[in-house]
Amino acid sequence: MVPGRVLIERHKPLRSRLKVTMKYFTLLAFLATVSALTPLKSVITSEKERYIIKLKADTDVSQFTQSFGKSVGSDDLDFKLLHRYENVFKGFAAKLSEGALNQLGLPVDDSYTPIGDGTGITVYVVDTGVLTSHNDFGGRASSFYDKDGGAGTDCNGHGTHCAGIIGGSTWGVAKNVNIASLRVFGCDGRGSESDIIAALDQLILSGSTPAVVSLSFSGSSSTLLDDSVNTLITDGFVVVTAAGNDVSDACGYSPGGNTNGITVGATDEQDARAYFSNFGSCLDLFAPGVDVESAWIGGSGDASYSLSGTSAAVPHVSGAAAILLGLDSSLTPDEVKTALSDRAVMGAVQSPGAGSPNRLVYVGSGDGPNTPPPAQACSYTITTNNSLVTSPNYPANYDNDLMCDYTVVADDGFYVQLAFEDFDVEDGDDCVYDVLNIYNGATATTSNKLASLCGSQHPGLFNSTESAMHLTFHTDSDITATGFSALVTFLEEIIPTFPPATGTCSCQGTCDLEENLINTPNYPAEYGNDEDCSYQFSVPAGYFVNVTFLDFELEASATCSFDKLVIFDGTDNTAPEIAELCGITFPNPVFTTGSDVYMEFTTDGSVTRTGFLAAITATDTVATLPPPTSPGPITPTIPSPDYCDNVYTDPANDEVTSPNWPSNYPSNADCGNTIQAPQGSTITLTFLAFDLEGGSNCPYDTVTIYEGDSVQDPILAGPFCDDLVIPSPVTSTVT
């Protein structure tokens, strides 16, 4: 253990792939079959939805529903009362026609009253093209760019669907906005990263602002694409991007991981995060993305389909951004982003995912609800070897809505090792609730992620191949746990990280790297007497074994003659001995010179301890670190009288300790300490810590207190030797 603490601190849905030269991007809408032109379902006009309305506690429910039914009936809206609630709360359930975008309160109606319609603003839709002749666009849609030099005709449907949500007269958010199509994906939904960047390049050259750029696609992290988006924003374009549909941290994707744009996740009909939607701190907003009806290709210009995906959520926000720009064309991209965030409905999204902001897009009339305090910040840089990294409040439970970042930076020529001592984080499929991500290097990208961790399985240890390691800890607004504690160590060599352990090897013979944690029997409870355990590991040929201790506490002995762990450089105990370990001091990592290690753990019939927990990994170079030096075999020394025999004359301030405290005392010590007080006073000796070798009738190490200044005087208390049991205070009757 390190003293003190350093403050740092499913299913995957069907989707069409966009094949690119170096990257793969995804059109983020889902269909029910492999056909890219088959709708998820046929559209049913005026589909009914169920609502539960909670009223004030003193409301007469019967009178209210009668009055409400008459009012909606007079407006020619459908209303069917399903239940009245009088006991759980005052309220009712009813079937009503679905609201368009959002409602802030009663009466519930079918009207969406935006604060504007986007007049004078252009939204550039980078997609599969747009059917500009669709009746829903009313002549407001045009082709701006076609990768093939054509007319931008949409033969896939995805782009038209997105454009209809942005600005269609039937389903659109901003019903008078201009739509400009940039066709970069073909009829089969395929395209290249180079085509996308070429379209954005043309947009920067000849596009005009104020405007919104709507990007309903996602792929692996791309610096080139992110740079292109940044240039658009610098030139005054508001850029809206998709979080992605992989149930993962959106920060690892492009363009959604670019925090300069506006990244959008998807919700379903119950305002829960859609089962496919990415999540995380790179998101800015959520918007509807399940079974969204909009314009489609084919027919006589009035076709419509329903699709699901974060690509259906993006155009909701693109339309909302256009409305804000239409009201004030001087707004910068950052100001639009802030305004959308400020107007969003807070806390409306169920299970938004670890690190996600709980904001649902809203551009209706009124100012919207107040913004609650931001998620707790906890970002630190660690530059000190042997630092302890913990979750906030550890060992108490961490808080909800955390977005923590830890960056560990080692000295030049050193690498980072992270060894977990404790781990308990809310579990969930794909760690969608609370998650600790570990990255190889100083930044967080998909390509350098070592692991995403949750649950209570001990993760073992992780090693960087760079001089830095980055951790992000994100929590949602629900369950919390004790979190984690991990030791940071700087190493002089690169040690590859193997996958986290799926099991623990405990007192058995041959183990494998899927069980790369070993521990003593009963750990973390005490091991038993007369244990005789062996552990044998083999790593791939060409690698060497590294044994790193995460916890260590055995019975102490200067020669490790009682309880001990012996490590051999081979497959059995006939191989050369590398280390013989006992006591309570953490050993240094132990390295073999070959691809095998054999360990024996034996105990005697007396003292027991909590034992050890160690991780087995592999390294491709022979270690240059020194072998363990403590508390292995040492030459016994007898303390000199001036070191061990002392006289204390200020009992109010003096502290009496064993030799070497808090390290192990030596063998063969024979110490006599005399405590003197002023005449007429008595002396009280209060033990603050006590850890001696135990045994029946104290045959080994003891502390005895005498009523006087020599061993010839009467015994006042003791002898004491009980392992880890602190004796009660002892008070003299003389000075």
Automatic annotation (TrEMBL):
<feature type="active site" description="Charge relay system">
    <location>
        <position position="158"/>
    </location>
</feature>
<dbReference type="InterPro" id="IPR023827">
    <property type="entry name" value="Peptidase_S8_Asp-AS"/>
</dbReference>
<feature type="active site" description="Charge relay system">
    <location>
        <position position="311"/>
    </location>
</feature>
<keyword id="KW-0677">Repeat</keyword>
<keyword id="KW-1015">Disulfide bond</keyword>
<dbReference type="InterPro" id="IPR034193">
    <property type="entry name" value="PCSK9_ProteinaseK-like"/>
</dbReference>
<dbReference type="InterPro" id="IPR037045">
    <property type="entry name" value="S8pro/Inhibitor_I9_sf"/>
</dbReference>
<dbReference type="InterPro" id="IPR000859">
    <property type="entry name" value="CUB_dom"/>
</dbReference>
<dbReference type="Pfam" id="PF00082">
    <property type="entry name" value="Peptidase_S8"/>
</dbReference>
<dbReference type="InterPro" id="IPR015500">
    <property type="entry name" value="Peptidase_S8_subtilisin-rel"/>
</dbReference>
<comment type="similarity">
    <text>Belongs to the peptidase S8 family.</text>
</comment>
<dbReference type="InterPro" id="IPR000209">
    <property type="entry name" value="Peptidase_S8/S53_dom"/>
</dbReference>
<dbReference type="Pfam" id="PF00431">
    <property type="entry name" value="CUB"/>
</dbReference>
<keyword id="KW-0378">Hydrolase</keyword>
<feature type="disulfide bond">
    <location>
        <begin position="644"/>
        <end position="671"/>
    </location>
</feature>
<feature type="domain" description="CUB">
    <location>
        <begin position="644"/>
        <end position="735"/>
    </location>
</feature>
<feature type="domain" description="CUB">
    <location>
        <begin position="507"/>
        <end position="619"/>
    </location>
</feature>
<keyword id="KW-0720">Serine protease</keyword>
<protein>
    <submittedName>
        <fullName>Putative tolloid-like protein 1</fullName>
    </submittedName>
</protein>
<feature type="domain" description="CUB">
    <location>
        <begin position="378"/>
        <end position="491"/>
    </location>
</feature>
<dbReference type="InterPro" id="IPR036852">
    <property type="entry name" value="Peptidase_S8/S53_dom_sf"/>
</dbReference>
<dbReference type="GO" id="GO:0004252">
    <property type="term" value="F:serine-type endopeptidase activity"/>
</dbReference>
<dbReference type="InterPro" id="IPR022398">
    <property type="entry name" value="Peptidase_S8_His-AS"/>
</dbReference>
<feature type="active site" description="Charge relay system">
    <location>
        <position position="127"/>
    </location>
</feature>
<dbReference type="InterPro" id="IPR035914">
    <property type="entry name" value="Sperma_CUB_dom_sf"/>
</dbReference>
<dbReference type="InterPro" id="IPR023828">
    <property type="entry name" value="Peptidase_S8_Ser-AS"/>
</dbReference>
<keyword id="KW-0645">Protease</keyword>
<dbReference type="GO" id="GO:0006508">
    <property type="term" value="P:proteolysis"/>
</dbReference>
